[in-house]
Amino acid sequence: MVEVTFCVKGHPPKKTSEKSMWSTENQVPRLIELRKQALEARNQACLSNPFDEKISLELKLFGSEKELDAIGDLDNLLSGVCDALQPKPNNPTLEVSKSFNSPDLVEISPEKAILFENDANIHMLYAEKKITSRDQYYTVTVKPIEYNT
What we know:
By secondary structure, the protein is an alpha+beta fold. The protein has a single domain (4-144), classed as CATH 3.30.1330.70. 23% of the residues lie in helices and 22% in strands. It has three helices and four strands, in the order βαβααββ. It has a four-stranded mixed sheet. The longest helix has 17 residues, at 28-44. The chain is globular, with a radius of gyration of 15 Å. It starts with a strand and ends in a 5-residue tail after the last strand.
């Protein structure tokens, strides 16, 4: 069973009810870094395409107690990660940051699926904040679920 695990410095993009994270300037660098690291991990796992089966996703955030309290609700961060690893919504009115127009970001274009086409294929979620003395970072693991029928 192929598993994709990767680590990203800082904290993940956060989904809020305000403006789309795809066009929110303080979220875009987080989206870009997450998508870059995920694609690199997918390639290292020798996965030529995103997962197309039922999957699980695990998010672990690490940092000081103060940092972890300040980054916000775990559910908003988890939603941000899930949305970032699939293509952006197919919404003609959605504005995407011009930062994604850079030629060196073609492989992680918002239109592309990085680890899955649709987060509806996530059948198991796990997330936690872990206090550490190291600089803030997070890990993501995505893997297929094997159902015993």
